[in-house]
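User:
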Amino acid sequence: MGATNMLERLFRIAERGSDLRTELLGGLTIFATMAYIIVVNPAILAFAGMPTGPSTVATVLVAVFGSLLMGLLANRPFAVAPYMGENAFIAFGLAAMGVGWEQRIGTVFVAGALFLVLTAANLRQWLASAISKSLRTCLAAGIGLFLALIGLYETGIVTSGAAGLPAASLTGADGKLLRAPDVPLKIGSFHDPRVLLALFGIVIISALMIRKVKGSVLIGMLVVALAGMAVGLTQRAVAQVSGSFSLAPIFLKMDIPGAFQVTLLPVVFTLLLMSFLDTTGTLYGLGSAGGMLDDKGEMPEVQKPFTVDALSCMFAGIVGTSTSGAYIESAAGIREGAKTGLAAVVVALLFALSLPFLPLIQPLQSLTFAYGPALVVVGLTMTASLKDLDFSDLTELIPGFATIVMLVFTYNIANGLTAGLILHPVLKLLAGRGREVRPAGWVMGVFCLAYYLWGLPH
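Assistant: Predicted structure:
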């Protein structure tokens, strides 16, 4: 009883309309849908020459640090981990510059420090105010569709248009370079048992949600995982913790002086802008989906999650991995009713508990047919935010639509948000309603235009 009272005082669970069981379940659900980062992030950073074992430990430590801080400092049910997209920029985007991974990680730390300065000066909050209520509404829907696309693709229900085609059919006229397939996406093979299990998972989770069963997302994932085990699809592995998982080779190896070289300053700016846009879009999208925004579409005390984001990025540079921020998969826990930072603390503890079992994690990440359906169904529920969009006002509808389609079809949150932020002030001005745009809206519009003109989209 004493522990319950302490948690209540710390997280104000009842005040926010939740309960202990819901928060614990929400945290467990979030972890189940984002644990793939333990494997995916190190695999991408390996292309930058970073050792996989230590990189795996760094990935987990950032998730522990960021999620714990988000829960305790910001009291929000948002999990934090290294960002997808930014990790690809670190690994592949800088390859042509011949930059060593130590300098690349140095730029991560510097970008995080700049985040902190902007946050302390209230500039990040001011810039975030540039996002109109309609854009935030469309962000939530766009992120929902993005989650659904990720789930459909990961499970094989939808696959690449190039899948199954002979290499010769994808070769360009020069016979050397590959060309894009005529159809970018197509339906997957319904003879694949993984696809059938994923479809089964979508139906099960949907049915449980319709019946308002608590924990429907998590229960559905467990049912599908057990079904996969029954038909022999669950990989099993027996391994011992290896010394290769020591953090020593990358800990504090960031080259900060090297990050201040003139040639790397555009890299720092790129990481700063990419992470700001990704984090801002994710925070407001999740906030809108979870009913955490006020009547003006603002997030109360938004400075706190922004501060967590900045500190997490700095910590990521220290332990040796890519920039971090709030994860859109947090929507799965929010859908289960999570409303407080206790859910984020649960995510942090589960990541921490995974450390001794890292050699066993990779085989478990093959269960895309189990967690993919959760992303699809949760994504569906997030599109409900569109009910608040004014479809009669084209100066709001067009930027919102651009945000959604660019976010989903370029597979990146930042690309969607920048498109909306550019179009919103432009269309307001052309309509003779420029006074409706806040000063921050014009500033962000210019910055976002630079995002495209300087070739930063990823």
